[in-house]
Amino acid sequence: MISVYQGSDYFEAQLLKGLMEQEGLQVFLQGAALQGGLGDLPALGHLSITVNDADQRRAEEIIAAYEKGDYSLDGDD
């Protein structure tokens, strides 16, 4: 397993996880249970998405496409 995402935005992490799962990747979101402790924990980097080593390249492509806006909705959607 290899980490392909680290962040603190729970909704973004869930979105990326869903996009990867739609592509057939086995995805694990770690740190989501820590959301309730944010007052006591550092606010950055507590979420992590890991995938199988063989899926690293595809997962990184999905993240890059998301960051470019390829998955954004336009007015026609």
Q: In sequence order, what are the helices and strands, one letter per element?
A: EHEEH
Shape assignment = globular
Provide the low-confidence segments as ranges. none
Amino-to-carboxy terminus distance? 35 Å
What is the CATH first-level class name?
Alpha Beta
Mean pLDDT across all residues, rounded?
Answer: 85
Strand order of the largest sheet: 1-3-2
Structural class: alpha+beta
Task: Report what the structure shows.
The protein is of the alpha+beta class. It has helices at 10-22, 56-68, and strands at residues 2-7, 27-30, 47-51. The chain starts with a strand and ends in a 9-residue tail after the last helix. The mean pLDDT is 85.
List the helices and strands and how they pair.
Elements: E1 2-7, H1 10-22, E2 27-30, E3 47-51, H2 56-68
Antiparallel strand pairs: 1-3, 2-3
Give the structure's gist in a few sentences:
The protein has 77 residues and is an alpha+beta fold. 34% of the residues lie in helices and 19% in strands.
